[in-house]
Amino acid sequence: MKRVFCLLLIACSIHVWGQDFASKFMEQCAKEDGDIQCQTVSPIMMEKLMDTMTAPDGDRDEEVPEYLLSKLKSARIITATKQSEKLFREAEQLIEKNKNRFSPLVENQPGQNNKVFVRKHDEVIRELVVLNLNPDEKTLTIVNLTGDMDDRFMKILSS
Asked: Are 117 and 105 in contact, with CB atoms under 8 Å apart?
């Protein structure tokens, strides 16, 4: 287990060869006044999250956290509390500009505030982007995961 965390730490600290969605979005939309925050989830935070995971029957599956961590290379969370609707539209436009790279995981309906996109190579998901707009709280959240995610990873994540 410690090996997995060390590998994850190394993977997160190595310069990423290509730009992920979060990097590109921050490059285009980040304001100097600090309205948009981007947090890279550290291996320690991931470990704590994995410690809270339980199987559907309530028992903790020791294999699941190690499996999930082995599939992830990076995890970033972007939040914005001002101009969230405008930034949500900008995120959608950035996805649209890159429609040759990203495709919707499920068919998105116009006007939806939750959208999930993936970048695949063959059958492996290399990048997962979740856009979430909460108009009541005026908050935009973007979750960007990169790695080698497969169907099992997606099933565990969605549960």
From this structure: yes
